[in-house]
Amino acid sequence: MKYKRLGKGKYMEEKKNRTKKRAGQCLAVFLLIVAGVALYHAGTVKGASNAQPGSVADPLITKSYLEEQLAEVSGSFVRVTLAKGKQIFLHAGAEAVIYDGGGTVLGVGGLVNLTKGELLRKDNAMTRYQLYLSPSDASGFVATANTTVFVSGSYTMK
Questions:
Q1: Rounded to whole angstroms, how far apart are CA atoms 105 and 138?
Q2: Separation of alpha carbons 11 and 39, rounded Å
Q3: How many CB atoms lie within 10 A of CB 142?
Q4: How many beta carbons lie within 10 A of that of residue 70, not counting itself?
Q5: CB 96, CB 129: distance < 8 Å
Q6: Per-residue pLDDT tens digits for 11-42
Q7: H or E element: which one contains 31?
Q8: Cβ neighbours of 32 (radius 10 Å)
Q9: Which pTM does this prediction carry?
Q10: Between the CA atoms of 61, 66, 69 and 71, what dihedral angle is there, to the nearest 10 degrees?
């Protein structure tokens, strides 16, 4: 910054003006910070960030979206209940998910576990909540307990 050669009184007056200008700028910055803190505090008091994630006050997804998605999925899968020892044979391309209970694979073709990406052969145990695909009409499973399974596609029970 260049200073002009002025008389002693003029130099002091210019210095005072610069000091007042800086003080005004510092005050403006301070007021902006105080306003930001006040807005943040008001948001937390009103519950904008106090809600438990996933609670009614702060859902991860809306209830209407979930119901819409479930309606689409549940339209393609049918709930089937099997007593212990009952057999179900899935036709080629049919899918099944064991929801409750358990099963052991039947048939020469086995079942494809799409969740893990592996083929289960005859007498292999099935895992709950995994998606299975039938590669042939002769594939299925026997319930090892009272079992609830969701099936998409054609099937035969014995």
A1: 11
A2: 43
A3: 19
A4: 10
A5: no
A6: 667 777 777 778 778 888 888 888 888 887 77
A7: helix 8-45
A8: 10
A9: 0.54
A10: -170
Token pair belonging to 108: 């020469």
d(Cα 54, Cα 117) in Å, to the nearest integer? 31
Residue in 77, 82, 83, 109 with CA at minimum distance from that of residue 96:
77
- Per-residue pLDDT band for 43 (boundaries 50, 70, 90) equals low
User: Which residue type occupies 38?
Assistant: A
Give the sheet arrangement for strand 155-157, strand by strand.
Answer: 103-106, 139-143, 87-90, 155-157
Distances, alpha carbon 144 to alpha carbons 4, 37, 79, 115, 141, in Å: 98, 62, 17, 21, 9
Which residues partner with 100 through β-bridges? 148
Rg of the chain over Cα atoms, rounded to whole angstroms, equals 35
Residue 85 has which token pair?
């020892």
**Residue holding tokens 């002693």?**
8
| Dist. CA 132–CA 113, nearest whole Å | 5
CA dist 46 and 39 (Å) reads 11
Give the pLDDT confidence of 85-97 residue by residue, as tens digits.
999 999 999 999 9
